[in-house]
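Input record, target 12 of the design panel.
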């Protein structure tokens, strides 16, 4: 049944001219391996296989993220890594471990939310004002800044992550930030903030904030 489920989707993708197939957000290594097997058999195109990330840092069948990535790489996945659940801050430590162990290309696609060591996934984030879980409708209270997204992309490039993106909660301006940090100039770059045209900052944001802070101290 599961094989048929994957086969149907893979054959549709290949018929539509897919260059490669992404199978993502698996919490079970066994299921991810089955998807990979089906891609190799029915798709015969490169396979990107990424695991989801639970609060425990383990898969549902008890593997660490490094172990899961290694098993998938050894089984023939062209790209392995993580996507979803964790924000940039709590995904990066795992990516560093995966990079140290895996030989081929790796992928990192966090959610653009400010997860923390004590609330490491978007599903575990709690809104301080209500003491209730933010997931799913109140997650905007935890959205990342553009700077955080750029910093994540920069760190990915530094450690050798080749496949960089974002998952649930992503927006066009975030992808533009990622692309520009990776040295690209997408069409949307013409909408990138230009502080030289700002009526207050006049091109020097740091100088403005320094003067504002100084005036506040004096008063």
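The sequence produced for target 12 reads:
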């Amino acid at each position: 049944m599961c094989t048929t489920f994957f086969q149907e989707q893979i054959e549709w993708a290949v018929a539509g001219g897919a260059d490669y197939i992404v199978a993502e957000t698996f919490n079970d290594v066994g299921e991810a391996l089955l998807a990979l097997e089906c891609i190799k058999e029915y798709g015969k195109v490169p396979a990107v296989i990424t695991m989801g990330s639970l609060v425990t840092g383990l898969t549902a069948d008890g593997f660490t993220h490094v172990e899961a990535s290694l098993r998938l790489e050894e089984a023939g996945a062209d790209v392995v890594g993580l996507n979803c659940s964790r924000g940039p801050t709590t995904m990066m430590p795992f990516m560093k471990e995966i990079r140290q162990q895996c030989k081929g290309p790796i992928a990192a696609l966090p959610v653009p939310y400010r997860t923390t060591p004590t609330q490491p996934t978007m599903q575990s984030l709690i809104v301080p004002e209500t003491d209730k879980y933010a997931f799913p409708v109140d997650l905007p209270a935890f959205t990342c800044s553009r700077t955080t997204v750029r910093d994540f992309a920069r760190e990915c490039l530094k450690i050798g992550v080749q496949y960089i993106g974002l998952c649930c909660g992503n927006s066009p301006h975030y992808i533009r930030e990622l692309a520009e940090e990776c040295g690209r100039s997408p069409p949307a770059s013409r909408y990138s903030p230009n502080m030289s045209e700002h009526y207050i900052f006049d091109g020097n944001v740091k100088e403005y904030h320094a003067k504002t802070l100084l005036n506040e101290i004096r008063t």
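The chain has a mean pLDDT of 93.
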